[in-house]
Amino acid sequence: MANPGASWLVGASLRCYPAEWRRRHGSEAADLAALLIHDGTPAGSIACSYLVGAARERLVPCPGRRFGAVAYALIAVCLLSISAALLAPTAPARAASTSHAHARAHCRPGAAEPLRGAIVPAGRPEALIPQPGHGRSC
Amino acid sequence: MSRPEGSPGQNVLRRVGEASVLILVSLADGPKHGYALIQDIKELAGVELGPGTLYGALDRLERLGLIESLPAEDRRHPYRITAPGAAALREHLDSLERVSAAGRRRLQLGGI
Q1: What residues of chain B lie within 8 A of the CB of A53, using their CB?
Q2: Domain ranges of chain A
Q3: Which residues contact A107 (CB under 8 A, 6 or more apart)?
Q4: Is B82 a member of any domain?
Q5: Cβ-defined contact of B56 to A57 (cutoff 8 Å)
Q6: Range(s) of the domain holding residue B20
Q7: What are the tens digits of pLDDT across the range B88-107?
Q8: In a domain, B3, yes or no
Q9: Within the 38-97 window of chain B, which residues sit less than 8 Å (CB to CB) from chain A?
């Protein structure tokens, strides 16, 4: 990799993988990144791909591999992010619904419709689309 | 080779994702290493696999016993499709062909 910035970026993303993975694929992955950068692929997108791969590598349980502290930390960060995303759009809706509380007493305030496909079977997260209403006519 | 996660039986490729299927298709005509796989898949399917996605899929396929890693050549590990991998790929492609044919028939019937 001629560009030291690109080299550092890719190296940093590769260091996010578990040590076992780096022993097995590390040098080959660095060589592959160098070839892709030489072909014109942006170093940022390569680093991003390796970061996602590292997160998946740490989060997806494999037979015989135990979750480490980093994996638990990543899960905690993801859960907090999802909670924040769910709470943020419902707060104004909850405030607005208080004025109609008597008229719609049977509707639970702030009961947002479940987000469709937040996690798809293939494991790719879809974009979270906040839906403040509950979608049912009351 | 490590012990496979499960027997690569019926429709195993439905669960492994598009990248894994593309890798198996690319390996169907002979062993390839990572860079060659990315180039070949880009050419045959127009899909640019990220290196992180590639290694994740390779590890998964290897654990399933559908591909195997060959001895390293100049720090690069070539991968080869195994007999169960070829069988799973054939079955998956047959299934895709059936769905494709049904889709075309229904489009004709619908006059769309």
Answers
A1: 50-53, 55-56
A2: 4-59
A3: A97, A134, A136, A138
A4: yes
A5: yes
A6: 15-110
A7: 999 999 999 999 999 999 99
A8: no
A9: 38, 50-53, 55-56, 59, 63, 72, 75-77
* HSE-up of residue B88 (Cα within 13 Å, Cβ side): 28
The CATH number of whichever domain residue B92 belongs to comes to 1.10.10.10
Q: Is residue B37 part of a domain?
A: yes
Sort out which chain B residues have CB atoms less than 8 A from A45's CB and list them: 50
Could you identify the residue written with the tokens 């940093």? A12
What does the pLDDT average to over A83-105?
A: 54
Q: What is the average pLDDT across B49-71?
A: 95
How many structural domains is chain B composed of? Answer: 1
Contact B56, B70 (CB under 8 A): no
Contact B55 A29 (CB under 8 A): yes
Q: Give mean pLDDT, residues A7-23.
A: 93
The answer to whether the CB atoms of B56 and A56 lie below 8 A apart is yes
Q: What pLDDT, in 10s, does the model give residues A43-91?
A: 999 999 999 999 998 887 655 455 555 566 666 676 677 667 666 655 5
Q: Which residue has the higher pLDDT, A76 or B4?
A: A76
